[in-house]
Specification:
Elements lengths: L7 E6 L22 H13 L4 E4 L10 H4 L11 H9 L6 E7 L5 H15 L3 E6 L4 H6 L11 H17 L7 E4 L4 E3 L9 E2 L4 E2 L14 E4 L4 H10 L2 E4 L3 H17 L8 E6 L1 E5 L2 H12 L12 E5 H13 L5 E4 L7 H15 L12 H5 L11
Length: 386
């Protein structure tokens, strides 16, 4: 009998939880966006539950429209820089992956390549990058632009070149280029360094990165866009992909990006597709889970109380869905959100994780030291510019 397919688990959240109204729950800290200590405790609980990674999403700047329209939303108005927050979390954890969000529209490849390489070194090989293409005019104006002039698929053309440049910068040095030979007074072997000298449609980058090749070779690349252009970028460059929607939609998306990856000469098994559970509440009984759901729903505006996107049930209920999606090839794993963090995260690790382990669907220990190792993904060889 073949081994059962095991799930990968990634927590997708904000410091207030994954729901716009999560900050209103009484178990949430009074200032959740800046209570770093409380957030680190949540991430440590995720690590005890053997989650592959924590994924922090963000939008740079407030949402479009008048302030009155968003005055009730904490996550779009009050947030720390995700990469700096993950750097703090890195020192308080040992195994869980740390995936930040950064836009290819509002930064430069060199500065981002250096930042992500630094996070990978600081965390011992646990960094990841959620590639986004910003589209809001409010974001553009924060960076001195009149508007986001590019539309899809042009934004994704820029993103593809951007990611290619970043990977090239990570490959500036051979893995063993830094010799630190005190006797010879030599820091690195110049034969083992290759400046990028990129001249593309959008970017020109001439030098090499001023940091050793990251422990993972390349930090993990995540891509969440499932438009035509987004799927092409995923197939070319991503290690992780998010496929939102029901089981059939997730299966179609997974099959499609795997097919496209093969067309780009990649092994489809090096692309992990995660189905998205936006918000999960789990309890010992269905009655308790439904009571928690009613309690949270009472915090919402009446217009928000239908299609709230919260999955509530027992550990067996959640595990049944996960098994069905795994066996139906709808997903390789799951990006799990929690409407608020203090309580639901601990309930998931206490109830759902052991249930999945009992069914042979989830690990009982981390497989390795890096995020790539825990995801079962190979470390990329260094690409030398032609």
């Amino acid at each position: 009998m073949s081994a059962k397919k095991q799930a990968r688990l990634v927590a997708i959240t904000h410091s207030t939880g994954s729901h716009l109204r999560g900050w209103r729950h009484p178990n949430t800290p009074a200032r959740p966006a800046t209570d770093v200590k409380a957030f680190i405790e949540v991430v440590q609980e995720l690590e005890r539950g053997l989650f592959d990674a924590l994924f922090l999403s963000e939008t740079t700047g407030t949402m479009p429209g008048p302030a009155e329209a968003h005055q009730h939303d904490s996550m779009v108005n009050e947030s720390l820089d995700p990469t700096l927050l993950l750097s703090a979390i890195a020192s308080a954890t040992r195994h869980i992956g740390l995936i930040t969000t950064a836009s290819t529209s509002l930064t430069q490849p060199y500065s981002l390549a250096r930042l992500l390489a630094s996070l990978d070194h600081l965390s011992g090989g646990r960094a990841g990058w959620n590639v986004v293409t910003s589209r809001f005019e409010t974001e553009a104006r924060n960076f001195g632009l009149d508007a986001q002039l590019l539309r899809a698929p042009e934004r994704y053309d820029v993103a593809a070149e951007f990611v290619d440049v970043v990977k090239g910068l990570w490959d500036s040095f051979d893995d063993d280029a830094f010799v630190h030979d005190r006797e010879k007074g030599q820091v690195f072997d110049p034969v083992r360094v290759q400046p990028l000298d990129h001249r593309g449609r959008r970017f020109r980058v001439s030098g090499s990165l001023d940091i050793a090749r990251p422990p993972q070779g390349h930090p993990i690349i995540l891509q969440a866009g499932m438009s035509e252009a987004g799927r092409e970028l995923t197939a070319r460059e991503a290690d992780l992909a998010l496929a939102s929607g029901g089981g059939w939609h997730a299966r179609e998306a997974r099959e499609d990006v795997r097919r496209r990856a093969a067309a780009h000469g990649r092994d489809p098994d090096t692309l992990v597709v995660l189905a998205v559970f936006p918000s999960v509440l789990v309890a010992d009984t269905r009655a308790e889970a439904e009571a928690q759901l009613r309690e949270f729903t009472a915090l919402l505006h009446p217009a928000e109380r239908q299609q709230h996107g919260i999955l509530a049930g027992t550990a067996a209920d959640i595990a049944d869905i996960i098994e069905d999606w795994l066996d139906g090839d709808a997903a390789d794993g799951f990006a799990v959100g929690f409407p608020y963090l203090q309580g639901p995260v601990a309930a998931f690790t206490r109830l759902v994780v052991p249930e999945l382990q009992r069914r042979g669907r989830f690990r009982t220990a981390y497989a390795g030291a890096t995020l790539r190792e825990n995801l079962g993904l190979p470390r990329p060889a260094r690409r030398v510019p032609e």
